[in-house]
Design goal:
Distance between the termini: 34 Å
Structural class: mainly alpha
Number of strands: 2
Number of domains: 1
Strand content: 5-15%
């Protein structure tokens, strides 16, 4: 009787680990997908004079549970937030806010696929 319980427990532990791996994979996929959509939206919204700022918008760093999106142009923050002499022309913040609304739906979709 004890060995059957141990076997059942072992199977339950294995399935739990497997589910955890699926959740981690789904989370990575969703984060990556949203980050790519944020980049696309920001590139559509960014004001363009020379195209340099737009060309520097992208995924900056990726970890298991986060993806950093931004622009590496030295003046990117000035365009986004404005200065005392220049009005703000946000392009990144609106892209993030727009895609944040999709996060829950994408997680559910990925979990259903797993």
């Amino acid at each position: 009787m004890g060995s059957l319980r141990a076997l059942g427990l072992r199977l339950a532990i294995d399935k739990t680990k497997e589910l955890g791996e699926h959740i981690e994979t789904a989370n990575k996929l969703v984060l990556r997908r949203i980050a790519e959509d944020i980049v696309d939206d920001a590139k559509l919204a960014v004001p363009v004079r020379t195209g340099y700022l737009k060309s520097t918008i992208g995924i900056q760093a990726e970890t298991i549970d986060s993806v950093d999106v931004g622009a590496t142009a030295p003046y990117a923050g000035f365009v986004e937030d404005g200065t005392s002499k220049m009005v703000a022309r946000p392009y990144l913040r609106p892209a993030v806010q727009s895609q944040a609304r999709n996060f829950g739906d994408l997680v559910v979709q990925e979990m259903e696929r797993v």
